[in-house]
Write a structure and sequence with these properties.
Elements lengths: L17 E2 L6 E2 L10 E2 L2 E2 L7 E7 L4 H5 L5 H7 L3 E7 L5 H10 L20 H7 L4 E5 L11 E2 L2 E2 L16 E3 L13 E5 L11 H19 L4 E7 L9 E2 L2 E4 L5 E8 H11 L20
Parallel strand pairs: 5-11, 5-12, 6-15, 7-10, 7-11
Antiparallel strand pairs: 1-4, 2-3, 6-13, 6-14, 8-9, 12-14
């Protein structure tokens, strides 16, 4: 069941939860006809991070990841942050889920066909750029920065949704080998896209689990003390009707624990948009940001 909408005051620099209790009542704004009604209002903000890294894996059922028998690292990672036990993909197959997380809509895509071109459509990178915030996509096996082909080695464009949007600077799409070891040099927001083996699509859960530990655990540990965040999620489950997926947040200002609230790709997008004071795109506008996991 979705959380009822709360009136949210978003400001880019605000990182604390503020409750206005002066008389317990203030005027709500934005009502039809410009009318005002006295209502109790809670003013909540998503913690604003200097760096957010989102890593996407592929096509695995939640119990197979969360149990830890096949993915001991991801289980350990979840114990260090917030694990969402009711997180779900939007649809099947892969590509529309990536597009949904990136733009608030599947943009009418129902399969994994390539190429797609979306002209003038709002998306997360376009929003960040307009707000003078930096972004980058790091794709494993991408042959060169700005490559727009459908595949190369084990890279697949269908897992890099920004390539489909004509208002994104494609030079910001770079090989994963460019991921910095000095994490202060990361942009505000990064997507990390492992190749078709290391994202667990073509190879085992254990392969992807080990890959993330090897390549991103150092960032996860650094993030805890450097106002940064690692989001680990999956595009979809292994084609069940439930479509339940593993999602965790690890970093600074995160309250460690398991959270049973419903989460999906649109809600993660809304959380990032609220984090940086960006307007909600598409279906993200019908979601509320995740706020309870932040200290």
């Amino acid at each position: 069941m979705r959380v009822p909408h709360l009136t949210v005051l978003r400001a880019a620099a605000v990182t604390a939860v503020t409750v206005v209790a002066a008389a317990g009542m203030i005027a709500a704004t934005g009502l039809a006809g410009g009318a005002s009604k006295p209502v109790a209002q809670v003013l909540a903000a998503v913690h604003r991070y200097d760096h957010v890294v989102i890593v996407m894996h592929e096509n695995k059922n939640y119990p197979d990841i969360a149990s830890g028998s096949k993915a001991p690292y991801l289980k350990s990672l979840a114990s260090q942050g917030a694990l969402f036990t009711q997180s779900f993909g939007i649809t099947h197959p892969s590509q529309p889920n990536y597009i949904a997380l990136f733009s608030g809509s599947t943009q009418g895509v129902t399969g994994d066909t390539c190429p797609n071109t979306f002209r003038g459509k709002g998306n997360l990178f376009q929003q960040l750029g307009a707000a003078s915030l930096s972004y980058r996509g790091y794709s494993e096996d991408l042959p060169s920065a700005g490559y727009t082909g459908c595949s190369s080695s084990d890279y697949r464009r269908k897992h890099a949704p920004w390539v489909n949007f004509d208002n994104v600077t494609q030079s910001m799409h770079v090989p994963f080998s460019s991921f910095p070891s000095d994490y202060t040099k990361l942009p505000t927001l990064s997507f990390v896209i492992p190749n078709m083996c290391n994202d667990m699509h073509d190879c085992s859960i254990g392969t992807g689990d080990t890959w993330q530990k090897t390549h991103l655990d150092a960032y996860a540990q650094w993030a805890k003390t450097h106002n940064s965040l690692l989001i680990t999620t999956f595009d979809e489950d292994n084609f069940t009707s439930v479509n339940q997926i593993y999602t965790s947040f690890v970093g600074s200002n995160i309250k460690v624990g398991s959270y049973s609230e419903q989460v999906d790709h649109y809600r993660i997008l809304r959380t990032i948009e609220d984090m940086y004071g960006l307007p909600a795109l598409g279906n993200a506008a019908s979601r509320t940001a995740i706020t309870d996991v932040f200290n």
